[in-house]
Each structure stands twice: as C-alpha cells, then as structure tokens.
Amino acid sequence: MDELNYLINYLANKDSVREEILKLSREITRDCAMLIRKIHKSDDKDEFKDKLNEISEKIKKLNSLATFPEFVGYLSTPQQEFVEALSLYMIKFDNKIPSFKELDFIKEENYILGLADVIGELRREVLEAMKNDNLAEVERYFKFMEDLYEFLMNFDYYHVVDNLRRKQDISRGILEKTHGDIVTFIQNLKLREHLKRVQIGLSQE
C-alpha cells in the first residue's frame, strides 16, 4: 500500500508540474508575441525593458520546473520566442544581436532557432522603412538579416536540432524576397528623385 501511495503521489505531482509548465509556457509565448507587435510599432526603447525582464524571470522559473527529462521539450517554444523578441528589440534600439553568453538561461538549440525567426521580423522593419523612404534603415535591417542568415548556415546538425533545416530554408526565402523588394524600392526611389529634379527644372524655366 505504501508503494501504491508513493506511485500515485509521484504521478499526481508529475501531472501537476506538467500542467504548471504548460500554463507558464503558453503565457510566455503570448507575452512575447504581443511584445514583438508593440516593438514594431514603437520608437520608445525604455517602454519594453520591464516587460523583457519580467519574461526572462518567467523563463527561469519555467526552466526550474522542468525537472523531469521528458518535460524539457516544453521549454523550446517559449525560449525561442523570447530570443526572437529580445533580438528584435536589441537590433532596433541597440543596433546589435544578443550573444549567447548574455542568455545563459536559454538552451543552445533554442538560441539558434530563435535567431532564425528574427529574420522574418526584420523584413517587417525593412518594409516599414521602405514606406517612409528611409534607405539607411532599409540597408541597416537588411544587413542584420544577412548576418543572421550567415550565422544560421554555420550549422548542419539536423539530427540534433529539430526544425533547423526548415528554418534555414524559410530564412533563405525571406532574404531573397526582401532583396528583390529592396532592388525595386531603390529603382523606384531613384526614379522619383529624377522626376522631382525634372519638375524643379521645369518650374525654374
């Protein structure tokens, strides 16, 4: 009977921990998604510091809950989402990519895969800069996209990093599409500047 009670309590505790992990994981993922949307829309660097710190503490708590080996997989999505949000924030406001050493509470695989996801978010910043005819920002964000892609292509350990090849393929497609958009944008910008000079010239005659 003692063994039976032990096993029942063991599994009940394990199930309780799993439910807590799932709840916190969903919360972190939702927080990061909302944060990414707000970062895209804001130019206020200080607005997000508290939220980023709050999410990082949640991830550390999540890590501490994953005491059973089979629960480690639940860390992947929230950790990757946090790397994505933090990287977008630091690229936009600090002009740099966070290093792995700065994120010692993030698994190695999740750091790599999280950076892969930033490429798509940077495309949004490129398109926004195009709308504002801000060529300097277009080139700045695209350079980060290229740097991240080159970093990502250093890894070919597809049997130990799930989704690595898929994310590399997606990143390549985003990069190629964005490069094409930039070429068209620059051509259009030059044409509009030429037409403006022509109009000025005609008005002065």
From TrEMBL:
GO MF term (any one): metal ion binding
Recorded coiled-coil stretches: 7-65
UniProt cross-link Glycyl lysine isopeptide (Lys-Gly) (interchain with G-Cter in SUMO2), position: 196
Keywords (A to Z) from UniProt: Coiled coil, Magnesium, Metal-binding
Residues that, per the record, bind Mg(2+): 84, 121
NCBIfam families: PRK14562.1-4
PANTHER family assigned: TRANSLIN AND TRANSLIN ASSOCIATED PROTEIN X
Record's protein name: Haloacid dehalogenase
Species of origin: Methanocaldococcus jannaschii
